[in-house]
Design goal:
Elements: E1 4-7, E2 11-16, H1 32-43, E3 63-69, H2 72-84, E4 89-97, E5 105-115, E6 120-124, E7 132-143, E8 148-154, H3 161-168, E9 192-200, E10 207-211, H4 219-229
Parallel strand pairs: 3-9
Antiparallel strand pairs: 1-2, 2-3, 4-8, 4-9, 5-6, 5-7, 7-8, 9-10
């Protein structure tokens, strides 16, 4: 079942599950894009093909907010905001890690080099040929017996940026085997959740904030979430 977080004539946002892929890939598995199209077609009794634009994506093992455009005007403007990392669009993530970061809060700046064949990025302290600067800010917002919850403000949008940068400082995300966590999670996801997105609406120009609840069927996410609410 789709969890719709926000919907109007121009945009629609859903809470992605860890197993979902945003757009169809070589696996041939059903995509979130197709699921949202089917939802719109049925709800509004639309004949023919439904337009749906994808201005951004999150990785398959990640949960949280995914924003889609329902009109070409909205897609053009959202694409521009995401590509330029406009100040009018802010993305907040939650990450569960098994190692306490060196400080309770901080700013990470690295140069990320993407290896397309391995579908992996590598972080360096100094610029390398073909690398892109990656910046995020984090703060510690929760603790359990064995794990820590970080809130992350993404200031650039690079391939696997949060996963790669946290691994670089010795804090790989829970379940993320690709970036050095020793064990997988049940269900194959990782402890990374796109918690919130704030942006200027591409048509009305009003500021919109959309928030997604983490996957509470996971006992650790549930523990952290309930502790934050108390």
């Amino acid at each position: 079942m789709l969890e719709i977080l926000y919907e109007d004539n121009h945009i629609i946002a859903v809470n992605k599950k860890i197993s979902d892929i945003v757009q169809q890939d070589k696996t041939g598995d059903p995509s979130l894009e197709e699921e949202v199209k089917a939802y719109i077609k049925k709800k509004y009794n639309k004949p023919g093909d439904v337009f749906l634009g994808v201005p951004h994506r999150i990785d398959r093992p990640v949960s949280g907010v995914v924003l889609f455009a329902r009109t070409s005007k909205a897609l053009t403007r959202l694409n521009k905001m995401f590509q330029e990392h406009d100040e009018e669009i802010q993305k907040t993530y939650w990450a569960i890690v098994g190692t306490l970061p060196p400080e309770d809060s901080g700013r990470l700046e690295h140069f990320l080099l993407r290896d397309s064949e391995k579908n992996k990025s590598y972080a360096y302290e100094k610029e390398k040929k073909g690398s892109k600067k990656a910046i995020l800010e984090y703060k510690l917002i929760g603790r359990s017996q064995r794990y820590y919850l970080l809130e992350i403000k993404l200031l650039t949008g690079r391939h696997h940026q949060i996963r790669c940068q946290l691994a670089k400082i010795g804090c790989p995300i829970k379940g993320d085997l690709k970036y050095g966590f020793p064990r997988s999670n049940e269900g194959g996801g990782i402890g990374l959740h796109a918690r919130e997105i704030t942006f200027r609406h591409p048509v009305s120009q009003e500021m919109v904030t959309i928030t997604a609840t983490p996957p509470l069927q996971d006992t650790l996410w549930k523990e952290f979430y309930n502790n934050l609410k108390d």
